[in-house]
Amino acid sequence: MNKKFPYGYDMNAYIDKAFEQMKQDFPWATRDMIAEHAYYGIEKMGDDYQYVSYSSWHDGTLKAYPENIDCEEFIRRLASGHDWELEHANPVKEYLDVPSSSRCSGGWFLETYRIQKHELGGYSAYVQAGNRSAGGSRTFFIPASYLKLPWEEFLDKYLDLVSPGPFYVGRDDLENAPGLKEFLGYR
């Protein structure tokens, strides 16, 4: 083994490390969220092993592309990008709509901005916007570590995650949202 591959060349060791990171912020996560949806791997290319990313071709084959990254970045990439799996593994059980002072931008309207509490634990922000003929939505899972912070620090981290903009609420909106602090477990 070498510095670039401290856990050897077996992908499972890296998936385990990524899963440990993922569980810290998403305690309901399962290992297969990473294992079944990993678009990265380790392959021997020429004389050396490389971290690779995979692309799927129209005929169903996978093509490996070398990534010039270190172990830490490889594990971070494995652990990230599982929003769809997180959302479907942990249904919403309760939500609180957050009023916003910013509702329209370029003909698009903020339709919904809510903080959601999930059945298996955890919280997310759900944002939906649209115009007369199109629209879209996005869910942002709030890492569990954010909720351990004091309220002011939580708001700072949250606003880094869900940056204020035309369709996202700002700090004043969050601070003045009736019942939000209590909904998130703050007193």
List keywords for this structure.
single chain, 187 residues, alpha+beta, 5-stranded antiparallel β-sheet, 3-stranded antiparallel β-sheet, 7 helices, 30% helix, globular
Description:
It is a single chain. It is globular and about 60 Å long. It has 7 helices and 8 strands, in the order ααβββααβββββααα. Strands 4, 5, 6, 7 and 8 form a 5-stranded antiparallel beta sheet that branches. The chain has 187 residues and is of the alpha+beta class. Helix 1 packs across helix 3.
What share of the residues lie within helices?
Answer: 25-40%
Contiguous low-pLDDT stretches (5 residues minimum) are none
Overall pLDDT level: 87
Outline type: globular
Largest sheet: 5 strands, antiparallel
- The proportion of strand residues reads 25-35%
Instruction: Kindly report the oligomeric state of this protein.
Output: single chain
Compute the gyration radius: what is it?
A: 20 Å
Q: What's the helix-strand series?
A: HHEEEHHEEEEEHHH
Strand segment count = 8
Class computed from helices, strands and strand pairing: alpha+beta
Counting DSSP H or I runs of 4 or more residues, the number of helices is 7
**First and last CA, distance:** 50 Å
Helix and strand topology:
Layout: H1 11-25, H2 32-35, E1 40-45, E2 48-56, E3 62-67, H3 71-79, H4 83-89, E4 92-97, E5 104-105, E6 108-118, E7 123-130, E8 135-142, H5 151-161, H6 171-176, H7 180-183
Antiparallel strand pairs: 1-2, 2-3, 4-6, 5-6, 6-7, 7-8
Helix pairs in contact: 1-3
Give a summary of the structure in a few sentences:
This protein has helices at residues 11-25, 32-35, 71-79, 83-89, 151-161, 171-176, 180-183; strands at 40-45, 48-56, 62-67, 92-97, 104-105, 108-118, 123-130, 135-142.
